[in-house]
Structure formats: structure tokens, C-alpha cells
Amino acid sequence: MALNDWSGNGWAIKVVASELSVTFGNSVRTFSSAEVARLDLKRSWWRWFLTRGDERLGRLRGLSSIDSVSLTMALARLSIAPAIDAAEVWHRAVLKRFAEGRGELRWIPRESVDRLLATRPPRGLLDMIRAANLERSLSQAEAAAVGFLEVDLEANIASINAEIMTNERTQKSDFFATIEKSPLTDEQAEAVICFDNRVQVLAAAGSGKTSVMVARAAYAVKRGFVDPENILLLAFNKAAAVELGERITSRFESAGIESSGVRASTFHSFGLDVIGRATGKRPRLAKWLDQGEDVQMVLQIVDELRDSSLTFRYEWDLYRLLFANAPTDLEQDEPDGYDPESRASGYRTFAGEIVKSHGERLIANFLFLNGINYEYERSFPEDLADATHSQYHPDFYYPDVDVWHEHWALDRVGVPPKRFQGYSEGIKWKKGIHAKYRTTLVESTWGDVLYGDGLAKIERDLTSLGLNFDWNPDRPITDKWSKPVTNESLARLVRMFMAHIKSNGLTKELLDERLKGKQSNLDGYRTRLFLNCYWKIHEAWEQRLRADGAVDFEDMLVSAAKHLEAGDIDFPYELIMVDEFQDASSARARLIGGLLRSPDRYLLAVGDDWQSVNRFAGADITVMTDFEKWFGAGPQLALTTTFRCTQTICDVASHFVSKNPSQFAKPMRSVHLGRGAPVKVIFSEDDSDALENFLEKLSSEVEDGSVGAARGGKVSVDVLGRYRFQLKELRQIFPENLDVTFRTVHGSKGLEADFIVVPGLSTGTYGFPSGVEDDPVLAVAMPDADEYPHAEERRLFYVALTRARQQVVLLTPIRRMSPFIVELLNEPGVIQEGMNGIPVEACPQCQAAVLVERKNGKTGNLFFGCSRFPACTFTRNV
Q1: Could you tell me the pTM of the whole model?
Q2: pLDDT per position as a tens digit, 743-753
Q3: Does one domain contain both 375 and 345?
Q4: 63-92 pLDDT per residue, tens
Q5: 3-state SS class at 400
Q6: Domain ranges, residue 444
Q7: In this structure, is the dihedral angle defined by the CA atoms of residues 607, 612, 614 and 615, taken in order, positive or negative?
Q8: SS3 per residue for 158-173
Q9: Strand partners, 23
Q10: Cα 768 from Cα 520, distance rounded (Å)
Q11: Positive or negative, the Cα torsion across 696, 701, 704, 708?
């Protein structure tokens, strides 16, 4: 039926439904709505024409001005009719989705929002209608649909989801109160109800993340959202997976919910299943990995390579003894030695002397291990002191061949540190001295040694001058304070590096490309020396796997992820929940992503970036901090209430760890009343004595009833060491009324005790923070290494603090105090013990250590000095 029609002398135009019929004489043409958009009415010399672009379709004889207006409006209305129809269809679809969400009380997930957004007609239709004066032509339904295009859909759905959240918490209150043994908190209940496609839950230590996972699975089944056999829970170790499975079974049974088919698995077990089903052949993990002997296997490979290759032996020992502790930043300046004769701070060498720079120490140790006779800073034979120069003392002198050696503090482009005023002029003056007196001078620079073949050049130069180099990595070290990196520690670093290489799918060629794009302080001799050793170990590792017909964890996870990504196999899991998400590697992230390829899948990732401490196992914190990049947008929720720690421990621990700005900021609140006992710092040079004294005192308090177990039974004490070897260094004499256990801090993850004691909080290679675990070479294999100082070690310390239900006790030597302790001393929730009741004062000069009482070796007078001495030389009279 014609809705509108116009006619004149020899022409007629009709609008029928969504088409335009145009007649000129005997010619009839039909235009669809889409084609009408190109038609127009144009007037020339009082004559009207129907045009299409520059083409005149015909003259409209007799068209009145009034009819021209109505026809113009009809053309405009017809051209946007499809958009209006689409707006109505979309409007009805959105309202239906709103009604479903409200009616079913089921969270409207992100994928539903994205589907609606993807089908939404272009916004701006209302402006077009207004510009064409077509508002009156719209029906009420059309006007509502067109206007709705401008509505913020996401805000509307967020509002509806908020309604659903409120209603579900009220209507399902009995469920949330009984699904776990303790009622869920509001935060836990919200994490269960928020049934979005991608949900990240930041869970503070002891905040009941397992309860959320169990309750969410039960909620999904009870509401009919997901069948039990379509639920997968992934954990990082077998014990955690078993616990999840047992909790699912027992809590579902108590609630009368069917749990048969719910799967709780480790990543490794699931990855093996993926490969087995995709290829028809399930791979086998290498025995040494299954037994947790991966570092021992690296050590075995290293021993074999050292025996079979003199080059490998030399490069391994060179890195371990000299470069592993060498900083990659020329500006880094933290002296660890003091020369009482010269009263100068500096750096201890293997020979027991004090030199002035990291570079000089590296060279001195290199000379020592090669059996080279040298004198450090011997006075030049000529008296050169004048008004502007003190007597000249070159860095090294080789008496056997009468050769001098200057090591210049110049970076790889020949620039000295900014703080070295007049350094370049000094170099010129010293070179002039040697030229004037015709002495033989050997030169080296920090840049050459760290980034070029500086040590090899020194050896070549001195060999040509008559010295005989005799490299002996086992040469007895004279200085008792010097602790080079052990073979086991370097093997652990290699295994850590390997985990990231494999998890990130890096080959030697790809790594070289990445290295070129990394910071300039990474691509140099130090890094290349490590990589030379690493790739030989890597190949030997691969050969062992091939010989055993086995795979390692990382290759298996990457392979499983590739099968899922390629669609070789799909699993029916609709609800996927991941525990300890902060420990995910990029390979695990890819595997999770592969499970989410199909639509209408739901991921709940529960973790705490503050507890990301498994970098040695390939963990990459950016998987958590870049959650949206990996898996897509979704809500980020937080469990901020801890059922474990006191508020004092919460405050001290969270304030300490949250200083790293790259981590998520979140509060941490205790469910317990009162603030609880303060964190105690005990100053002692002997950890065993301090531990024994504390345990005896605690035993007495337990005996007289002033201290009891937080959860009944024996009072438990966990002694958490940074390293396994600390167990051997502590006396194992414990009171019978205390349940005392030694663990490593890494091994304490997920555990708790009434009291926590952390020994060994000192500085140095094997202190806390560790001087071994933060090797900058790791950044080469990681996408975005955390550049905050001691980032992972800080998180590890936070883990230690938050294992305690009642109190944390920290043991530290006053003169080698950990910088972590220095930070804590000013915290209101921290008390000190062991300094005769005198509070320790922070050093006014460096603010990074404390003042301790010292005695002048010559006068015997007492004075206060910085515990960070010789890095800081502040003193004050008593």
C-alpha cells in the first residue's frame, strides 16, 4: 500500500513500504531504501529535478513548493528507514536481555555486552533525524528505539548487575552462610555472584580464596548455570589440587549439590591430558623433574660440561666468581669494606684488600685467581705532589715486569659518572705522567670489562709484557668475608632463566633479537658470557629429554597451549577457576587462553600480586598485572579481609610491600578484634641464640597461660628461612610445649602458624634480600621485568610476615642489618629488643641504616656510627 505519492505532468513517485517507485513517461524504476540515500531534489530556474549524484533522472513538472518539502522529507525518511528498523530490533534485543538478567537474577556478562555493542546501529541517528526535521515522522516505538542508541549501555548493565548482586545476596543469604563452614563475607559473596566471563580476584593473605572457588562452583551448579562436568579448577601443586577436590566434594555434599564431574587438577596433569587427547600419545615428564631435582640436574650437566670442555669450565667459573656479583650500572655505589689505615671505604677483594670501585675489585679478583703478583695503589716513584695534585698512586703495579695499570671509570661510550668532577682532566694528567717518565702503562675501562673483552685484553697485554697467567678457580680465597656465588646458586639461576626462555617460546635467535631491543646495560660481555654457558646447558638438557623420551614442565605446557590455540582439541569446560594466579607463567596463561577460545566461557582467576614469589619456576607477574591484555576485559574484585593475621601484622606487611608502585593497591583488614601484638625485631649476631631465647620465653608464657594457640592445641611456631641451608645452622633444641617447624619462606606459601620467626635478616650475597636471586640477566628472558629494587624479595618478605596468626619475630644482626629491617624500624607496629632497652636510631645521613656503638681502634673512645658502614661513614660522639 502506498504510504506517500506525488505526481505531475508525465511523472509519478510513490513510497511503498521500504521502496521508492519513480515513473517518467512509460519508464518505471524502483529504488531500495539504501539506493534512495543517493537521490535528491534539485531546483534550477524554478524547475525541479530528481537527481542521483550528478545524473538527472527526470524533471518533476508541476511539483509545488509544499510537495517538494514533503517529498524531500519522504526521501530522507526512506533513506534512514533501515537504520530506524535496526534501532527498533536492537532496542527490543537489549530490553529482552535486561529482562532476562533481572528475571533470572543472573549476572549479565561481558560477552553479552560485547555482542549487543557489536550489533548496535551507528550512534548519531538521532542527530540525522533532527537535522532532517523528521522527529514528527517517528512513531512512539521508533522514537524510543532511536533515542536508546545514545544510552550508555555498559552503565545500564552495570546498574542491573548491581541490582542482581543486591537481590542475590539477600535471596541466597542462607546459601552464602552455609556453603562453607564459616559464612562468606560480603566480598566473598560478591566474587561468587559476579558471574562474568573474566573475573580477577585480588586475594589478600589469609582472605579465604579457596572458599570463593568452592562456593562459586556450588553456586554455578545450584543455579543451573553450569553442569558439574563442565567445571575445571586449576592449581599449581598436587596438594592444592587435592585440597580443592576434597573441599568441593564435602561442601557440595553438605549443601545437597551434585559434585560428580567437577575436576580439580594441577596445570601439569591437565597439560599432559591435553597433549594426550590431541595427539593420541600422552607424554611423560622427566623423572628428575617429577622428583623436584631440576637444579640438581643442571648441576650434573654443568659438572659434565666442565669435565669435557675447558672453554665451558673457564666461562662458567668466570661468570660465577667474577661477574655474578658485578653490577651492570656504573653509578651503582655500595662499598662493603673499610681500610683502617687509609680510613677509606671500598670493596673487599679475594686477597683481603680494599679497593675503590666495583671494576677494580673485579680486576683484582681476576688477577688473584690467575696468580698474578700485583700491588694496589703503589706510590709512583717520582714525587708528583703539587698545589693541585696529591702524590700519584696508579691503580695497579706489577713489580715482576715494572708495569703500571690504570682502570678508568668510563662507561661503554667513554663517559665517567656524573659525580666524578674533573675526572677526564685527571685521566689526561695521569697519561701525561707516564708519557713523561716513559713508564709502561696498561689501561682498561669499566665499559670494556663489563661490555667488551676487557679482561681478555688485560691478560693479552700483561702476557705480552712477560707475566704468566695461571687461572685457578679453586685458589683459596684469603678474605673471610668474600663469598662468591656457589655452583648451586648459579645452577638455580640457570634453571630460573630456562623456565622463562621456554615459557616465552624463545629460541637463541629470538633471544638475540630481544637482547638488541632491551636496555643497553643488558647487551654486553657479562650477558653474553652467561648466555654462552646457558645455551650449552640448554642443549644438554634437551638431549637428556630426547634420550629419555620425556618432556619438561615448560615444553609440555607450551605444547598443550599450542594444541588448544590451534583448535586441535576442545574441552567442554565452561567455568574455569585458577588458584594462586600470581604464579602463572606465560605458558600457563596461554593454556588458560586456549580453554577460553569458545564463547560463553567463564574464568575466575584468584591470586595476590603481593605474593608473586615463584619467578624461579617461570612465574611472570605481568600475566596478573596485564590481565586484560591476556584474557580480555572484566571486573577486578578484591578480598581484603584476612582471617589469619592481626591488624598490626596487616598494617606492617601491607605498608612494606605496597611501596612498589607497579603492584595493585589494596587495603588489608583483619577480622580479629584488637590490633594484636607488635612485630618484634630482635638484634643479635647469633640467630641460634636469639631463637633459643625467644622460644624459651614463649614456652614460659604458654606454661603460665598468658599465651595460647590461636586455634586450640599446641602453640605453633614456624621458623622461616630464606635458604634451605639455614636449617643446618640453627640449633634444633625446642621446648616440648611448642610445635616448632623449620621451612623455607617459599615452602610456607599457603601455610600459617601462631608465631613466625624469620632468621638471617642480613645484607650480602646470602642475606634477605638475596644478592643472588636478582641477577639482571633474568630481564633478558622476561617480557617486562619489575625494575623496583628487590621487587620479588620484598614480596617474599611479605609472604613471611603474613604467615603469622599472632606475632612475627625478626632476627637481625645490628652491624649487617637487612635494609628491610631498616624500613620497618619506623613503623608504629614494630618494637625492638636486644639493644639494652635503647631504641635504635636511623642514620641521619643515609636514612638507610641505623646508628650503632663503635670503638675507635686507636684511642679506645666510643662513638656512634652507621650500621651501613663502610657504605655510609656517618659518625657521632657518644
Answers
A1: 0.84
A2: 999 999 889 99
A3: yes
A4: 888 888 888 778 878 877 888 888 999 999
A5: coil
A6: 331-464
A7: positive
A8: HHHHHHHHHHHHHHCH
A9: 12, 28
A10: 28
A11: negative
